[in-house]
Fold this protein.
Amino acid sequence: MLKEIDFIGLIHKSTKRDYLSRVNESPKAQVAEIAKRWDYDYWDGDRTTGYGGMNYDGRWKKVAQAMADHYQLKAGDKILDVGCGKGFLLHDFSLVVPGIEVYGLDISGYAIENAKEEVRGNIQQGHAKQLPFEDNSFDLVLSINTLHNLYCYELFDALQEIERVSKKDKYVCVESYRNEQEKVNLLYWQLTCECFFTPEEWAFWFHKTGYKGDYGFIYFE
């Protein structure tokens, strides 16, 4: 049964955002095109084209701990992070649950090349719409801040793929909005979104694709 759970709020809300500066300081279409290359500029370049330098600082450890506690993860369990980036969350899972098996997939070759060394060998390049894993392979499949970067037809396949490769628990976190102000803020801030919906519309997608896992939303308040 689907359940809304907020694992990401503390990290998301810790960043202060100037939405008007974001949309006015540089040509939005141009920087979005650069960001969607998923290379240096997106991960480690200027803040206008992405993260402005994504370096490991341990902030994801509290997320890993909360998820490990909630899903009762233990040594020997296998987890998959779809859209894992540089693998920081995977690394922190290995710290909070010694003996857990972590695997990741990301579309960015640059992110994988610069992933946390301890988990880099377990990350492969690929697309969420076609996961290169057998049915029922993982105890937990998660995808955080990734699925809203897909087109609708890719999202459909990705949610079904997450359901397919999981033998137990699933969790996805996606961007959403509840009012016009949050929608405008999202449009001003985002660089890579292709599909973003209200919570009710996301519920439609979960039902339509047969996704039965948990979910969370990020709002730009």
User: Anything to note?
Assistant: The radius of gyration is 17 Å.
